Amino acid sequence: MNFSEAIQEWKSILTDDYVQTSSESLKHVETATFQTTAKVHAIILPASVQQLKECLYIANKHKTPLYPISKGMNYGYGSKVPSCDESVIVDLGRMNKMISFDSTQGVLTVEPGVTFQEAFEFLIQQKTNFTLAGTGAPLTASLIGNAVERGIGKGLASNRIDHICNFEVVLPTGESFTTGLGRHENSKGIGLTKSVPGPLLDGIFTQSNFGIITKMSFWLTPIPENFQTFIFSVQDEAKLPLIVDALHDLKQNDVLRSSATLFNSHRMLGFTGKYPWELHDGKTTLPEKMALEVLGRSMPVAAFWYGDGALYSNSHAQARAERKLVKKALKGLVENLTFFYEPKVTALTFCSRVLEKMGVSVPSQMLEFFFKKSLYTGHLVPMEMTLGSTYFRMKSPRPAPEKMDPCLDNCGIYWMGPIVPFDGVNVDLAIKIIKETITEHGFEPGMTLQMITARQIDIIVSIAFDRTIPGEDLKAKTCHDDLLQKLIDEGFYPYRLGIQSQFLLPSPDDDYCLFIEKIKKALDPNDILSPGRYDFRSNWK
C-alpha cells in the first residue's frame, strides 16, 4: 500500500479541496457511536462517475483500500467508519443530482448524495401525489445509502429493497454498467421493472462490497384521497402476542396494505425526552414503571406499547369498511384506538384552535404528526426525534437539531434488527430474550416492531449509553454481542449488520461463503473495495 503517492494522484484529479487529510476531518470519519479502531488516511470526494473511475484506477495501482459512503449517517451500525483498518473514505456526497422523475409511473432516479429531505421537497415542488416511504433516519440521510443497507420505512413501499431498480454500478476495477433494462438506452422500460432477460443483479450490490452504486431508481406510491391512520395503546402487555396475531391477519388479508408499527415504552421515552437522571442513576436499567411515569408527563396516555398503522382506501365506503375490520380485529385487545381521516381531522383542527384561544391546552400537534405529516405519507421525522434519541442517556444538554452530531458528541448507540416470523409466539419469545439480556447488562431495551410484510417482523433494538462514562463502551459492546448470540441461537438472524457485527454470524451450513469469495476475487482482484464488508471472509477457506 502506498497511500502518500495515491493521495497525490487523487489530488491531481480532484484538486486539494476534495482530498481531505486534516486530523479534524479524519477524526470525524474514524468516530462512531461506539468504540472503533480503524484508521483512515484520507477522504476523497469525486463529483462524477468518471472521477470515481479514475480514483478506483489509482487505488488499484497502489492497492489502497477504499470505503464508499453516501452521507455517512449509518448511526448505530458504524457511521462513516470503514470496515477495515488503513483505508480511504470515498465520500459520494457531491454526486447529488435528481436525475429524472417520471410523474406518470412514479419513478424517481437519483445519485447517492440526494437526501430524504431533498427528495421530499422535490416531490412537493412537482405537485405530485407520489411519495416515498417515510423514514426514521435523519432528514439528511441518503436515499441510496439507506436502500443499499436494505433500510425500511413506513408506507406502501416500506420494504425499500422491493421498490428499487435500475442501478448504475461502478466495479472495483473501474468498469461500469446499469442493471435491468438500463443497459439498453432505447428501452422504454428503464426504471419500471426488475424482471428482464438474464440474471437479476440488483440485489447482489446491496449489502455487499462488489461495486459502488452511483444511480438508483425508486418506485413511489400515490396517496389516495381516502387515506387514514390509526393509533392505539397497549396497557396489558400479556395481550401483545394476540395483538400481533390480529395484525398479522389484517396484513395477510390485505386490509393493512402498508407496514404497521409497535413501539415499547423505553423506545417512546427515547423519542420524547431525556433520561430521568433525577429519578434514577442509570447504573441499572430504568424500571418500566418509572419509564411509564416519565412518559405520563409528556404523552396523553402512558402505556407499555404504542401502535400505529394506515389504511389506503379508494372510496369512503371502502374506508369505512376497513376501519370496521381493524376495530373488530383489535377489540378487547388494545386501548385508545383512534382513527384520523378527513373530514374528521379538519373538524378536530378547528376545535383545537378554538379551545386554544379559550386557554384550553390540547395536543393539536398530534393531528400533524399522526395524519397531516404522517410518515405513512412520506413525511419526515424531525431531527430532534431521530438524532435526539441517540442523546437519551447523555447528561449534557441536548444540542439544537442543526448542531447534532451523535458521533462527535460521544453519544453511545447500537442498533440491531432481528427478523422474526409474523406470529405472536415468536414475537413474544424474541421480546423476552431482548428484554432479559439488555436489562441484565444494565441498559434500556428500546424496541420497535416493524411489520414489513405479511410474514416478517423486524424488531429494531436500541442499546443507548454515554460514551463519556468510563467502562460504558465495553459494557455496551458486551451487551450487544451477548444479545446477538442469544437471538441467533433461537434462529432470529438480523436483517442488516454494522461494522461491529460483520464477523459475528456463524458459518453457513453450505457453500455460501465460497460463492461470495469467488465473486469478490473475480470482481475485486486487488481487494480494494470495503474489505470485510458483508463478505464474511472469516469463513473463507
Quick overview:
This protein has helices spanning 3-14, 23-29, 49-62, 116-125, 143-148, 240-252, 265-272, 288-298, 316-330, 344-357, 365-372, 383-386, 424-440, 472-489, 512-523; strands spanning 19-20, 40-44, 66-69, 87-91, 98-102, 107-110, 130-131, 164-170, 176-178, 212-219, 221-222, 226-234, 260-264, 305-313, 335-340, 411-416, 419-421, 446-451, 456-466.
Keywords:
Vanillyl-alcohol Oxidase, Chain A, domain 3, 8-stranded antiparallel β-sheet, 3 domains, 19% strand, 19 strands, alpha+beta, 5-stranded antiparallel β-sheet, 541 residues
> For the record, what is the CATH homologous superfamily label of the largest domain?
FAD-linked oxidases, C-terminal domain
Number of helices: 15
Question: What proportion of the residues form beta strands (DSSP E)?
Answer: 15-25%
What value does the Rg take, in angstroms?
Answer: 24 Å
> Could you tell me the number of beta strands?
19
Tell the overall outline.
globular
The assembly state of the depicted protein chains is single chain
What fold name stands as the CATH topology of the largest domain? Vanillyl-alcohol Oxidase, Chain A, domain 3
Secondary structure category: alpha+beta
- Which stretches of 5+ consecutive residues score pLDDT under 50? none
Sheet with most strands = 8 strands, antiparallel
Summarize model confidence as the mean pLDDT.
93
Q: CATH top level of the largest domain? A: Alpha Beta
Ends: how far apart?
Answer: 24 Å
In total, the number of domains comes to 3
Instruction: Give me the CATH architecture of the largest domain, please.
Output: 3-Layer(aba) Sandwich
Indicate the percent of residues in helices. 25-40%
